[in-house]
Automatic annotation (TrEMBL), chain A:
<feature type="transmembrane region" description="Helical">
    <location>
        <begin position="189"/>
        <end position="213"/>
    </location>
</feature>
<feature type="transmembrane region" description="Helical">
    <location>
        <begin position="44"/>
        <end position="66"/>
    </location>
</feature>
<feature type="transmembrane region" description="Helical">
    <location>
        <begin position="144"/>
        <end position="169"/>
    </location>
</feature>
<feature type="transmembrane region" description="Helical">
    <location>
        <begin position="78"/>
        <end position="99"/>
    </location>
</feature>
<keyword id="KW-0472">Membrane</keyword>
<feature type="transmembrane region" description="Helical">
    <location>
        <begin position="12"/>
        <end position="32"/>
    </location>
</feature>
<dbReference type="InterPro" id="IPR011867">
    <property type="entry name" value="ModB_ABC"/>
</dbReference>
<keyword id="KW-0500">Molybdenum</keyword>
<keyword id="KW-1003">Cell membrane</keyword>
Automatic annotation (TrEMBL), chain C:
<dbReference type="InterPro" id="IPR003439">
    <property type="entry name" value="ABC_transporter-like_ATP-bd"/>
</dbReference>
<dbReference type="InterPro" id="IPR003593">
    <property type="entry name" value="AAA+_ATPase"/>
</dbReference>
<dbReference type="Pfam" id="PF00005">
    <property type="entry name" value="ABC_tran"/>
</dbReference>
<dbReference type="InterPro" id="IPR017871">
    <property type="entry name" value="ABC_transporter-like_CS"/>
</dbReference>
<feature type="domain" description="ABC transporter">
    <location>
        <begin position="1"/>
        <end position="234"/>
    </location>
</feature>
<keyword id="KW-0547">Nucleotide-binding</keyword>
<dbReference type="InterPro" id="IPR027417">
    <property type="entry name" value="P-loop_NTPase"/>
</dbReference>
<keyword id="KW-0813">Transport</keyword>
<dbReference type="InterPro" id="IPR050093">
    <property type="entry name" value="ABC_SmlMolc_Importer"/>
</dbReference>
Amino acid sequence: MNWDPLILTFELALTTTLVLLVVGIPLAYWLSKTRARIKPILETLVSMPLVLPPTVLGFYFLLAFSPNNAFGAWIDEWLGIPLVFSFAGLVLASVIYSLPFMVQPIQAGLSSLPPSLSEAAATMGKSASTQLFRILLPNIRKSLLTGIVLSFAHTVGEFGVVLMIGGNIPGKTRVASIAIYDEVEALNYAAANTYSLILFVLTFVLLLTVYLVNGGYLKRFWR
Amino acid sequence: MMKYFAGIFLLLFATIFLTGCREGRNHENTLRIAIASNLQYAVDSVVAGFEKEHEIICEVIPGSSGKLFAQIREGAPYDLFLSADMDYPEALFKEGRTIQKPEVFAYGALVLWTGRQNLKPSIEILASDSVRYIALANPRIAPFGRAAQETLVYYGMEEKVRDKMVYGESVAQANQFIQSGSAEVGFTSLSIVMSPAQRENGKWILIDTAAYQPLPHGAVLLQTGKPVKPAARQFYEYLFSGKGKEVLKNFGYSVHE
Amino acid sequence: MIEVRIHKELRSKGGDFSLDLELEIPEGQLITLYGPSGSGKTSLLRSLAGLLTPDRGRIARKEQVWFDSQKRTNLSPQKRNVGFVFQENALFPNMTVLGNLKFAQQKGSSHDLSEELIRDLDLQDLRDRYPDSLSGGQKQRVSLARALAQRPDILLLDEPLAALDAEMRLKLQEYILSSHRKFGLTTLMVSHDLAEIIKLSDLTVVMEKGRIRKTGTPREIFMERRLSGKFQFTGTLLELERERVITVASVLIGNHIIKVAAHPSEMEGLLPGDQVVVASKAFNPVIYKVDEQQ
């Protein structure tokens, strides 16, 4: 039993979720507050990965990340990180691919809070970031948990995008979903079954946690 | 409430009716041909010639030979299977999933291909710094991937380029990596770089046939649970006919004359 | 002195209207804003706090310009040092009562103001509770304490007592008045309750459709009939009982119900729920200290 694909999958999901927290919270905060005209356009873009086939994203990532392309070449040259066939590339692609799963719950959570909470904090002289971290986020813990778990689970389940730009390199881009596909094609059903079962159980537990916590079944542990 | 159920029934009938129509297309004159992805351009050409002569519609399903093999084993409704090797068709034959014993209709050839203007493809260059990624089809399921790996072993390059290899799920995806420039070079089929669509793109060299096991391509008529379609036999014969062989030769395949 | 001269086009559920205000607010006084809903009282408070940006005009306190549309000055709410008590209390659900107060308290305040306010406003029993577990009156008391914890120069109260029962109102009125005095605040409060206005405020501003109708002491405004009596109360008319020759009105004054009998003609046009003045024209009051034994 080769554990590498599973370990890699969780590394990818964890890194992606952390990056998404850093990127998604300010984006969701801005979207929940702004009345800018480009807001609907940005909201649409954020939601696109929900409906686009992953292969469309994968295809464009492959083109964009290629060193033949200005963007890919620039990243490659200035940061020294190639984006195709690399873990960094998978992280970037996954961040975009799972963006709606982080941004939408947080944005909805923030919008559901009465504006007077921020306003009260503002009159107390508190800056926007203090408002966000001391008042707003602590009051949307359920939305945060939903965003984190969904992003993580969605990244674990990612297949099409990784297939397009990963290159199936063991230990680098060969994540569990690809390994399963591979083992099935190689008629190695036992291995495919093991990977699949682990993913099945894990994602079940993750999602169950969200429903238990947000449904108030674990109130004693979650205030 | 009644209205609601009536609506549901209407929807159900509509669904059955529509899917029925779709299935209806699969009559005697439609063929489903599963092909190894390196054959795509060549078979498209063969199909075009065949369809001109017969009132038959061919649906071509490309994939890696291994994937198609697995699908056929699980009952995929294909009439013919054109594999990039003999092992998969032989295995199907042994399992009784074919009409007859598979036959070789062509031999493939391996090339090293680059989309980069400033690169001159060669075996040596694979180890150099100017090549960061080498694309090939997954050797576990694609015969051309296997041949590419044999080539690297033959030239004693395997260790040197181990970290550079990126695997497409089929030759088609390896092509994608090369064409998009994501991988500087890659191994693919001669038929790809000979195709009108790709002839102008990039540079390639033929790999010495001594470096890898031959790539016999096997064709076989599949058991579908129904009597074999006459159209399937017609296509099979066309493939082995002079016209079929002519097309295959144009794409760089060698055939039994 | 706070000078306000603002114009703002407002869109509300009841229709669009424009806010056109010119007002001078004397410092150190308790001012009430009175008027029907949709008359712009809340918008005025929000403009003062910097939560609403007027289209045109100027707001200045002493030497400091808070807003000037011509000079494109707009001081952020953070820099105005205004305490705001919201109608819906706006307590932070993730913090205890004490947490809410401490959050509001400015950094580096020398003594512990939060603890002092907890004592002043009788919040000792509630200090470690979360807002969700408090009653409406308790929430507003905490909300008031929190606004005071930031040591504001100006205290703005947007109908803080609207949803409370009579007893709770009276208690909170006391807290507002005593805090106003203790901290030497300039206080602006929106209220619909005449008794409350007359009891608390030094000055009343009557607003209607985005404009100021009248400004004056509550007595000048609400007791235009200039009763000759020397003793009067404002209260809420609870019910009218018609008897053969007279009508008896029950009036709630503070938390006492007082019955007043009069000729039916004098009671014409009155309906239960009306704010009324009960005055006595000639009487000789006696005054004595309440015996604590009693």
